[in-house]
Design a protein that fits this description.
By secondary structure, the protein is mainly alpha-helical. The protein contains six helices and no strands. Helix 2 packs across helix 6 and helix 4 runs antiparallel to helix 5. It starts with 5 loop residues before the first helix and ends in a 6-residue tail after the last helix.
């Protein structure tokens, strides 16, 4: 069930930052998503990849089985490393929900644990660039208060 939360989960920061009129937070979030998804897609174009972990038959007699089958129909197990699901979750920076969604991508067999670790590594690099290094650059450009 956590897997399907990913889609609205990515929209929440957009709505919150727009309602709070927090331009900097919106720009950082957008930069993280754009850079992360672009890098992931570029990696997949250079090195097409897939995983074959899914079962051949899914019991659709339960809600969860039906959802898993719908996910399998809509989202192929190709170009999965690094996982854009994980990169998107890391961009939101809401740890508990993000962890549940990342775990769900593995349990649903959309991604392997290797895909998750690759995306976490990419997310760490993006965080250091977008949130740490960029903040230092902005702070240096701000005039200091004089007494």
């Amino acid at each position: 069930l956590a897997y399907v939360l990913w889609y609205p989960f990515l929209i929440v920061p957009v709505v919150v930052t727009l309602l709070k009129d927090d331009r900097r937070a919106f720009i950082r979030y957008a930069a993280f998503i754009i850079a992360g998804f672009s890098i992931s897609l570029t990696i997949c174009m250079i090195w097409p990849n897939c995983q074959l972990l899914r079962p051949s038959v899914v019991d659709t007699s339960t809600l969860c089985g039906w959802l898993v089958n719908a996910i399998y129909s809509a989202d192929t197990p190709t170009n999965v490393l690094p996982s854009m699901h994980v990169v998107g979750c890391m961009a939101v920076l809401a740890v508990i929900i993000a962890a549940a969604i990342c775990a769900a991508t593995v349990f649903v067999k959309q991604h392997s644990i290797l895909d998750v670790f690759a995306a976490l590594a990419l997310s760490l690099v993006l965080y250091l660039i977008i949130y740490v290094a960029a903040r230092r650059i902005v702070d240096r450009r701000q005039p200091t208060a004089t007494a």
